[in-house]
């Protein structure tokens, strides 16, 4: 195999550029404000592990993490439950109606979140769900559906027609076709959508702040974190809180990313 | 093509609905909170979030209040967008009873908009009129003058002096704290020659905005300045233009640290605390934080005012003092017969001498009530601050007067810390003020 030193160097450089902010965040979480500003990339002179405890207690991150996990999980279950059958139907239908429906989903991209904010607030108020986690659980899947359906439709269109016919001849109905043929083959797509949307749900701030609110019982971790900001913020504590916020989603991503790679490479090589 | 079987549809639908129902069941609902509210609670939104130095003292008041009265506090922390948060909650029919918030930006218009109620009568009825400082009450009146309706009860007063690091001044050969702008320019040159930054300021946020106004009003009397801040007319008012020109002269003389336009308040604090700059303008809320920085900066700092130019409208160096920090605004719901008694018990508890002292000790507030709080001022800077009145003249704090134009004004002033000319600055301010 031919060596490509330039490519290797560039790859490492790119990796370093990506790692630099993470390193900065991690070391800042163990420093005082003064150190963060005077020695930004140096290791801490004194490792302030108590910053994590302070952030956890002060912003009540435990409850906030629980709320974020709950909202994200329910939202992702609902998203997949709605997007997978919709994508299946669109992938299997080549009619004008299907194209119109696909176009309608694509139009969802054209609506900027800010434009949807006020109508969504009004909707939450009218539904009696303002200031609750439940509204966020319902709203997030709705906002995620356009991208999820379009992505999954493309993945499901790669299912060979012969395989579908064969399964149908064996008596498989829609449910069996979906669960036994389409979903397994489109698994990389399902995992991709899951990762993508989980990250989006976890990081969502605007609607979580405006509609769910800052009450400690219901607020998400993205809303809890800014409570650490004051006129003279302890940036070490804020960075520690940010690490605690990022960590669960990083772990989830790492686990799911491996599954995605496995799914993508499964069957790629004949044995 | 296969037809969709009803069974398949039911399966998928049951899965989706089941997941939702299970999750909602797991989450619980708002009902317990609603019943608790009916059973004796107050909904409070506060600007003293968990990271604020006043949060601990606030919690002690709430805990004691709940213990004494049995009334629980449903506390919601208001972030930077606290005004939007409260307005949205009220629109949603979930109004808080009490908002602990600064008098700034949109909150200045809450009384007019019917969000909150006037509190003049409550101050009298609750026996606070005799103890509260008249100047504190006046700042919370409509128009900022005696006789105006009282929009809320001021609590967290502040002084906003200039901080001078005496060790660094001495090191640079500056023998005394500058009293005039010429002395300041001279000191800045000496500090720079010694490798020390002169005046640290967050040119892109509120700290830069306040320092700009402090300099810009140097030649203008308070009444005229209030009018200009409220209605505009920066370009058309010669004394204000002189002040703006003074600002650009100081900027061009490199009185501010390098790249001030790109710095925030956090940068300012860190630069000053770490000894990289010798001067900053910061409020009394930072006294406790400066001590907590662990650098010993509080022992090397003396407080004073901003140097005055010749021909200034003020005889002594200038500083801000105000009571438009955090105060209590009562919403219509809070003023309802079933709630107002609870509100009274809570608010009067805050004004108890020992409680005010607790806030002086923890958060370095300037007390809104008369009394001797020297014993609570354990922090050296707080102690110094309480006696600052004789050394400085107090200028007009812009907050109440610029109101909702605050954000666009700050954007204009970021340019002022860059390269904007006096004409560009005044035109930008006029445009931002008139919306």
TrEMBL record, chain A:
GO terms for cellular component: plasma membrane. It is a multi-pass membrane protein. InterPro entries: MetI-like (IPR000515), MetI-like_sf (IPR035906). GO terms for biological process: transmembrane transport. Its main location: membrane. Residues 65-256 form the ABC transmembrane type-1 domain. The keyword Transmembrane helix applies. It is found in: Cell membrane. Gene3D superfamilies: MetI-like. PANTHER family: ABC TRANSPORTER PERMEASE PROTEIN MG189-RELATED, ABC TRANSPORTER PERMEASE PROTEIN MG189-RELATED-RELATED. Belongs to the binding-protein-dependent transport system permease family. This is Transporter. It comes from Planotetraspora phitsanulokensis.
TrEMBL record, chain B:
Transmembrane segments: none annotated. InterPro entries: Bact_solute-bd_prot1, SBP. Keywords: Signal. Residues 1-28 form the signal peptide. This is ABC transporter substrate-binding protein. It comes from Planotetraspora phitsanulokensis.
